[in-house]
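User: Earlier you gave me the apo prediction for this protein. Now I'd like the version with acetyl coenzyme *A bound, so I can compare the two side by side. Same sequence as before, with the ligand SMILES added.
Assistant: Got it. Here's the input I'm using:
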Amino acid sequence: MTRKINIFDTTLRDGEQSPGASMNTEEKLIIARQLIRMNVDVIEAGFPISSPGDFKSVAEIGRIAGDKCTVCGLTRAVDKDIEVAAEALKTAKRPRIHTGLGVSPSHLRDKLHLTEDEAIERAVHAVKLARSFVDDVEFYAEDAGRADQDFLCRIIEAAVKAGATVVNIPDTTGYNMPWAFGARIADLRERVDGIEDVTISVHTHNDLGMATALAIEAVRNGATQVECTINGLGERAGNTALEEVVMAIRMHGQELDAHTDIVTQELTRASKLVSSITGMTVQANKAIVGANAFAHSSGIHQDGVLKARDTYEIIDPADVGAGGSQIILSARSGHAALRHRMAELGYTFEDDEFESIYQAFLEVADKKKEVYDEDLESIVHERERVTKAIWTLGAVQVSCGFPLTPTATLTLVDEGGEEHTVAAFGTGPVDAVYKAVNQIVSVENDLSEFAIKAVTRGIDALGEVTVRVTAGDGQVYTGRGSDNDIIVSSTKAYINALNRLISDRQ
Ligand SMILES: CC(=O)SCCNC(=O)CCNC(=O)[C@H](O)C(C)(C)COP(=O)(O)OP(=O)(O)OC[C@H]1O[C@@H](n2cnc3c(N)ncnc32)[C@H](O)[C@@H]1OP(=O)(O)O
Ligand SMILES: CC(C)C(=O)C(=O)O
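And here is the structure of the complex with acetyl coenzyme *A:
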């Protein structure tokens, strides 16, 4: 059996320190319930002395967690902070007080104005005071990543002797290279008396984009608790993302001699929940939970994934609750992806026929970022209409606007391939085009209905026009046309209806 790595979630404390991410108690409770469902080992619920709201959040989360997980409140190495945290946690079944202070030269000298010995004294006092309230006390050595290693060993040893059950080695400013941070953990394990009896925790920040790498390297070197947040929220560039560290441990568990008890199928739901509550959007290319994490939009990748998912995916999306892999159709897609999606929509084609569909698809794709199912339906139906064409559109140009008279110049091509060009005025651009069509086609009809709708999403959507024309004998013919340009779709729709009328007469 591999080592169990405790997942200490601090979304509600460090995560909330992301500018703009603050949450009220109700919101924190909703997230806490999801963290419990996900089976995290520890929830850091807040900083109780910070405000009455945070005090209440810690108390309420302690109440709902029961014995399902440990609930932790953060404090400074200040008596009042510790007493207030103890009060907030007094009804929690598994309470933990997390106390500590800065240990790097700049934190000691510039922020706390303490000598090393004074800092040790303060740490010991804080841990002992916390232990007088609860059995589970975590000591943090803030900015350990930039501390003098000999001093770090001394203060950690003093905290362990004072009764800390967990020692937290944070790289508060995300300064370290992963191997240097790992070496610190290995060194502490070698030099600190009694460290084998406590949990070594790490709390890393993402200032150099390495929070997850730092945490994993620490695990490789003996840490057995990782502090992390959903979506990597947290002060400045954020913390280690819970979903990343959990999945990295899951994928490389044997190599790391590590596992977690997280229900990974809940990760996507947790990510969406935190994003919607905090208003902090998840970047599309975010590992594990980003919208594009399992999306493939280039032909070579799509072909590979369709043949065997693991050619381009190391994680089964179902394992993180993300549904399935996505094939995004774009101008970079090849035949394999288009054929696959068409088949899913119920369309199969012979090779020749499919090639012309693929060419029509590329034309649409070059005009749009993404080709949606509705676009594909439109391509197929447009093509069905074109096969019955007697007249086809050669060119259409319209000038209109205030105070111009709407004028259309139109070229239609007949069945023999001959081009017919006319110009016409109208009350509006569509009216001008339809008058021009009538000049060429010259078949008695009355336009009884005209409707336009965007068939796809976004500003670059395809516009589909549906028209109904009534022939002299009262028979009604429907025509449809779609294009990114609504004048072109209007023209195609009208020609399509007239073609039906004429072929009926023939
Ligand atoms: C590494 C972390 O601690 S991350 C957690 C960050 N979270 C927070 O800051 C929680 C929100 N903070 C707050 O609500 C407030 O800052 C409080 C309640 C904690 C303190 O408020 P104030 O008493 O007004 O102090 P203020 O915020 O201005 O300054 C912090 C003081 O704490 C001291 N301090 C900072 N960290 C510690 C520590 N771990 N142990 C002891 N003292 C500390 C600072 O030196 C400073 O003391 P000084 O005023 O004597 O110079
Ligand atoms: C309180 C500690 C653990 C912290 O948030 C940090 O060092 O970043």
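For your comparison, keep in mind: Residues 295-371 form one domain.
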